[in-house]
Amino acid sequence: MIDNFAIVIGINDYELLPKEEHLKFAVRDARQMHDFLCNKAQFPQNNVLLCSDNSEKFNDISTRPSRSNLRKLLREEIPEAKNLWFFFAGHGAVGSDKCDYLLPCDGDFDDIKETAISTHSIIDYLRDSQAENIVLVLDMCRNQITGARGGGNELGAETINIAKQQGIITLFSCGRNELSYEIAELKHGAFTYTLLAGLEQYSLVRDLEKYLSQEVPAINKKYGKPSQTPLITVEPGWKYNVLLLPERATAADISALKEQANKEELNGNLEQARKLWRQINEISSSRLERREAVDAIERITKKIALPTNIVQAIAPQQAMDLRSQSNPSLESTLPGKKKRINNSQKLPVSKPELLTPPKRPQEEASINKQKLELPDGWILITRKLLDQRKGNITTNSLIRYFDGWNPDWEEALCETIRPRNAVSDLEDDLRRNRELGLRATLLIGPGGEGKSTALRQVVCRLVKSDSGFDVIWWEDPDTRNLREYLLFLPRKKDGKKWLIVVDDPSQKTIKSIYELFPEPLPRRDFQFLLCCRDTAWRNFGEGLKWDQRLKQISITKLKQEEALRIVEAWKEAGELTDKSVEKAAQELLEKQRSEKAALLGAMLQVRKNDTLEKRVGKILEDISTKPNAEHVIEAYACIAAMHAEGFKFLKQQVLAETIKYDLRKLRSDILDKLGEEIVASNQDCPIFTRHQIIAETAVKILSESPYYKDFENDIYPLLAESAERLWEKGSIGDGEIMKWRYDFPKYFADNIVNPRISLAINIAEAVYKIEKSPQLFTHLARTISKRQQTEDNH
């Protein structure tokens, strides 16, 4: 990942607009911004992409700011960067769809949707980079007038909303229904002229906003132009303290950041406080300040993992500590030097990254004496962490677990939830083979069999006993730096091994672990423990040439003693009142056999005299009585269809396009009505049902009366078609569309368990209907040929 990257666009001449609507100084504004970023903000020259009327090629791609060129550059040339800037000086407009657009040099105000680029799609391209900080600068009007930089009324309203949702810092050159003026005497737009002067002096967003709000109106007044007031939108609010240009940070900036970080911590905004301290750690040249930042990050990370009531209890003393740090007269009230803690709690899920530049630990360093800095998403599971989580489970949480909710550490530690036999098998295997080198152990079985619970219970046993393992729980894996991160883990004097645990690994994760085996690592102190659904493993893992270093342990059908332990847990939770333990255990064994190893379905049927079919049927009946029922059921069908097959890339944009619903109202009108039956945290995350078995059951019911949903000929192809339409609009990125174009139909065509060639063809045809490219035609032809091959083989 690079530190800084920018795309800078300036357009004077518009091919399809009359001369009086061309601009005079937009290109000059862009060139001045380019020079500032390269020369004063210390962006590398090759990391600032200039697109203007006569700009040079970039990586052999034309930078002439036409629609096709800009879309290609946005799709293909934005690298992974910590800080990403997008600057545009030119015309903008609102389309007939009420969406905001930037007008490229070949854009036409009379055909906005087909010739311009939506700001929504630009934001998506920027977001695809996974940048930590994105700055969007738009020097254009928000009310069209001849010769001004702008488009229709309320230009920017949609962009503001989207930018807020995405956490993007957005700088508009003027307020609603105002104009962004060019000033001949300055040979600049008033906004960019003032912005460049402001960036010379200020790095914090809040300071720059104050400067612009005062100086731009003053400049306009000085040169006889009407009022123009810039608008800066920042969500969440703590980002007002983000450094726009970290390389230009001053001592005053760092002092302001420290003050704000302490304030956020005192107010209980721990995640925000941690991000501010991370900024300080990255930009400060003072060793003492960096040490202070790292200590603060450790302290806050520890607090994040604590229950709320404990955090509240220590808040008054913490407030005194923080105030004492900024007031030497209170030094006598400070407690003694605090004991160091290990960074063993959950870090925020983002790109893996060490808190400080990585330094290889000494070969014989002890983890108890050396601060362990793990990448984001890697969690060291310690005895102390488990002790904090034990006993926190409530009766309602326990009942929800029995209803199919995914387990957490509270459930794994709960003595009421007895372990399956596979837990002992796994533990024995790991202990017995601990002295071996690189090795992977796989817990495998059907969905809904309790694999995730068993995995966490094994981890708890290993951590709480002298197992010889230090355990890292690897969440939301980013696999690009796996080898690097493993080799940065310290060796230990006591000969312990690192056990890296992954629940429900993706195809990329499985492949990245497999790739460690052929090329030996220079160390032998790593092992992996994976937990995987059997169908996923058949598709993603079995085809790889594993050797004897992979050991599979299956979670099998219930045995008598396991069924008794499960039913006794129900009884302790008050969930078994109308039958004896022995009778319920026998029913559970019988139902599981009839449910084809679906333990979750069998448990619901015995414990509640219910079945998954009845449960999902009741959900759909309830939906049918609500307003907007048709759209809600259609959305539920799409979500269930994707989750039933194990796909993890259905996002809210595609869902809204498929059911023809306003994306801005999708959550309130559709997703919230499904309540806890679906999981959808935000627009960037895939949408799921609560459990894959529930999704499979929903698909079965929705295929029958009274719903008659045709998944193979309607829903799956329509989803792919909708994704393609969004890509055509520039609303989703290339990485996402490739999944819909190729991975989606390939899954059905190549599925070893249940190949569905006709469905794969339907999807490939739906995509080709929208984007008639040679590549998609070839893909369609290959998919059709597979059907002929299958028929010939039979």
Summarize the structure.
With 794 residues, this protein is an alpha/beta fold. The chain is 48% helix and 11% strand. The two termini are 50 Å apart.
Could you list some keywords that capture this structure?
globular; alpha/beta; 19 strands; six-stranded mixed sheet; 794 residues
Describe the structure.
- By secondary structure, the protein is of the alpha/beta class.
- It has a 6-stranded mixed β-sheet, sandwiched between helices.
- It is globular.
User: Helix coverage percent of residues?
Assistant: 40-55%
Q: What proportion strand?
A: 5-15%
Number of strands: 19
Radius of gyration: 29 Å
What characterizes the major β-sheet?
Answer: 6 strands, mixed
Describe the secondary structure blueprint for this structure.
Elements: E1 2-10, H1 26-39, E2 48-51, H2 67-76, E3 81-89, E4 92-94, E5 100-102, H3 112-115, E6 117-118, H4 119-128, E7 133-139, H5 157-166, E8 169-172, E9 182-183, E10 188-189, H6 190-201, H7 205-222, E11 231-233, H8 251-266, H9 270-283, H10 287-305, H11 308-325, E12 378-381, H12 383-389, H13 395-402, H14 409-413, H15 421-432, E13 439-445, H16 451-464, E14 469-474, H17 482-488, E15 497-503, H18 507-514, E16 526-533, H19 534-540, E17 550-554, H20 560-572, H21 581-594, H22 599-607, H23 612-624, H24 629-644, H25 652-658, H26 663-674, E18 678-679, E19 688-689, H27 692-702, H28 711-729, H29 734-750, H30 757-770, H31 774-793
Helix pairs in contact: 4-5, 6-7, 8-9, 9-10, 15-16, 20-21, 21-22, 23-27, 24-26, 24-27, 24-28, 25-28, 28-29, 28-30, 29-30, 29-31, 30-31
